[in-house]
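Morning, I've got a small favour to ask if you have a moment. I owe you a coffee for this, so here goes:
>
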Amino acid sequence: MSAPLFSLDAVDAGYERAQVLFGVSMAVAEGEVVALMGRNGMGKTTTINTLFGLIPCRAGRRLIDGRDMTDASPHAIARRGLGLVPEGRQIFPRLDVRENLIATARSGAGPWTLARVYALFPRLQERAANMGNQLSGGEQQMLAIGRALMTNPRLLVLDEATEGLAPLIRAEIWAAITHLKAEGLAILIIDKNLDALLNICDRHVVMERGHIRWQGATAALRADRRLAEDHLEIAAAPPSQERG
């Protein structure tokens, strides 16, 4: 792995009196796609929130480009080039698609523009005048990804990339992520679809009860199905209850 774009170094973190992360160390390098994996409640979203400074580090360090950002604000961390697609999407329901995309855009900061987002997700251009709460779940996820790209990130983080989406929409999301990988964007993904993650990711980080239990390359995880059975929610994505 080349020099890390971001890393957590022996980080403890949690909420009020509850400690959730215990000595977590992980990293993503420039151009690398990494899966953060584990069953529900094992600390994956807490790890993301700690990375973005939404939860303070109780011990250890948060580094970006080798620079210590342990005590930095979420705003300062985001400005270092981190873009988040949060669990639950969290789009603005009373803004239309175009307004959602430009609301947090970083003008002149990089290659992502409205035109490029619309090219990646043509459905968003078709729905540009629709309010966020008028979109299907799949369209909202496309919008959340597009909004994160409009910040022109160096690292794109997706928390539950395709959860609850219909199969055709999931395929569109994975195709978009594959395209972003081909362009060299660093990506950190949480998702339950092991087969999709094995197809797209360079490395995998497996969490259990707030600890990193295993880290390694895709080939190693493919070769060790018992590891997947013991620590992961394996799914050939479950039938959707939500229409795209």
